Amino acid sequence: MIAVGETAPDFTLSDQDGEEVSLSDFRGGRVLLVFYPMDFSPVCSDQLSIYQEVKPELKEKGVDLLGISIDSIWAHKAFQEKLGIDTTLLADFEPKGGVAKAYGSYLDKGFANRTLVLVDEEGKVAWSYESPTPGEFPGANLIFDALAS
Amino acid sequence: MADLGSAPIPPLGDDDHVRGEGRLTIVYGDLGCPYCAAEWGRIRDGGGRIAFRHFPIASKHPRAPALHAAAEAAGAQGAFFEFVDSLYADRARVDDPHLWERAERLGLELERFQRERRSDAVAARVRRDFESGIRAGVTSTPAVFTL
Questions:
Q1: What share of chain B in percent tops pLDDT 90?
Q2: B59–A53 C-beta distance less than 8 A
Q3: ipTM exceeding cut-off 0.95 for this assembly
Q4: Predicted structure pTM score
Q5: Which end of chain A is least crowded, N or C, by CB within 10 Å?
Q6: CB distance A50–B62 less than 8 Å?
Q7: Which residue range is the domain that position B99 belongs to?
Q8: CATH code for position B85
Q9: A12-148, which class in CATH?
């Protein structure tokens, strides 16, 4: 996993609406990258639903939230609609998992582990967390603890 | 990386919703959650002192915020747990007319119930519980803490 203090690798990925989103678009603000295994899996559904609930509070703290998985933009759109969320979901689709690999989050199972990476205003990694297994997701408390520390 | 730890479960406050006597169980529940409904009977019948805290996950259960606000408004008239029991017992009847029926059946003053369930104070009270659960690391419902 990428280390705190390193420059967060820039990327450009398409979101659920096919719009290109680059990490550098957020320079000057903080971004929380949420790598997760796959759309529609039960744990991913719970994770993104909970994060949706705290998204406004994160925004108040100047943090934008970006979900990233190996799924296509069409899957992301359907997943977003199924969950009733408006969190931006980015397709790390081609090359598969390329961004997850750059951040050290990719597993040899063919998808990313649940990894949180907080990127600061200058594009450096301010905090990161990787779940022990893809089967459990980090509670939002960890995010708020990190922002307070 | 900093060594992070969850905030503790907040201790009972004066306005927590508490029923029963004995060993304390704190439940973070979502009134729109089928798993909570399935567990609620077991928790309730297990005895002891039960505190219910609001944890509506709106994206998963779009009616949850309205149901929690209604329960809170019922609580203002002394019928919190009766309202919660009723919602979990009959999950198919959660639209507004069903909430009015419940309020009338429980002898609540309907106009006050209607006014208070839409109030900012009730929304803030529900949100306070939700945020305490988030800070304590709650990730799904029901989250049950036996203290």
A1: 87
A2: yes
A3: no
A4: 0.86
A5: C
A6: no
A7: 17-146
A8: 3.40.30.10
A9: alpha beta
